[in-house]
Amino acid sequence: MKKHNFSAGPCVLPKSVMEQAAAAVLNFDDGLSLLEISHRSKPFVDVMENARSLALELLGLEGKGYKALFLQGGASTQFLMVALNLLEKRAGYLNTGTWADKAIKEAKIYDDIYEIGSSKSANYNYIPKGYDIPEDYDYFHCTSNNTIFGTQMKSFPNSPIPMVCDMSSDIFSRQLDFSKFDLIYAGAQKNMGPAGTTLVVIKEDILGKVSRKIPSMMNYKEHISKGSMFNTPPVFAVYVSMLTLEWLKNLGGIKAIEEENEKKARLIYSEIDLNPLFKGYSVKEDRSIMNATFTLENENLKETFESMVKEAGINGINGHRSVGGYRASMYNALSLDSVKALVEVMSELESKA
Ligand code: PMP
């Protein structure tokens, strides 16, 4: 039976990518596995370079002073690397969810952080708006998509200071003017590849402005000067990310996938809104096209719904414990058919109730 994988990440990847990745584990170059060749060998250096340039190309940032890195330690390490590399006096953070909150906690190790806006008191069901970004701060940090709560920033401020964005759960899913951002980071394990690497895209001229000594592994400049090969990179994760970026490019890039993502989001949200058994969690205007969060209004139907979901081959829709209910994560590689399968179950439940 076809499985419909709505997992929040790690998550569904394109089948063709999985097949190529599996083949490379057995024979990548001249009978040797991708996992047993030197990361300094030409075939792997080519993979790294290709992945780095594909990332910039897809984001429309080639030739604009940006560098792409594939680092380790997850997006969580970026919470502190950003502060170590950019924070001198003060930074402003938009607190839109658990991950933004964690980024604030790490940056606070180094200095006072100002929360420019927060939706914490509403358990993050909306994106704060109408905030001011002080001109004399070092940088402004935001999270484009809140994976747990299912909210998404639909527009970004014209920041007078460098803008840093955690795009872990919606990078490469929608068209944005990426040149508005000075630093973008994203764990690979949603729209880009397997867990194990984090894409960091940096405008080089924002670096080198803090007075502290930065340990080499934490220093963006060090990673840039070594071509993202300061130490042994996560070869498998980088290779599969490269394949996924190639897959996206061949589909027609971000513009093409955005159209698909919007179709999927329209389908699920119209069912949530029309079906009286379900209720959306996020306020409508801030709904994420990647993670749809919703609750079942009648607890007595929970068991029936969940067994129908299981029977339909639908996997990974349990909500995060801090929100409850359900979360359908619809990353780039999830097909419209999978969303149709979930919507069918939801409407069938209504006809049974
Ligand atoms: N930021 C966001 C928006 C996330 O969704 C996640 C993980 N789900 C993280 C950061 C943390 O990423 P990692 O597990 O790679 O550290």
Automatic annotation (TrEMBL):
E.C. designation(s): 2.6.1.52
Pathway recorded for this protein: Cofactor biosynthesis; pyridoxine 5'-phosphate biosynthesis; pyridoxine 5'-phosphate from D-erythrose 4-phosphate: step 3/5; Amino-acid biosynthesis; L-serine biosynthesis; L-serine from 3-phospho-D-glycerate: step 2/3
Predominant place of localization: cytoplasm
Modification type N6-(pyridoxal phosphate)lysine: residues: K190
GO MF term set: O-phospho-L-serine:2-oxoglutarate aminotransferase activity; pyridoxal phosphate binding
Cofactor binding annotation: Binds 1 pyridoxal phosphate per subunit.
Matches recorded under InterPro entries: Aminotrans_V_dom, Aminotrans_V_PyrdxlP_BS, Pser_aminoTfrase, PyrdxlP-dep_Trfase, PyrdxlP-dep_Trfase_major, PyrdxlP-dep_Trfase_small
Catalytic activity: O-phospho-L-serine + 2-oxoglutarate = 3-phosphooxypyruvate + L-glutamate; 4-(phosphooxy)-L-threonine + 2-oxoglutarate = (R)-3-hydroxy-2-oxo-4-phosphooxybutanoate + L-glutamate
Group of enzyme by EC: transferase
Residues at which L-glutamate binds: R40
Gene3D superfamilies: Aspartate Aminotransferase, domain 1, Type I PLP-dependent aspartate aminotransferase-like (Major domain)
Pfam family, one: Aminotran_5
HAMAP family registered for this protein in UniProt: SerC_aminotrans_5
Entry protein name: Phosphoserine aminotransferase
Annotated source species: Winogradskyella thalassocola
Primary gene name: serC
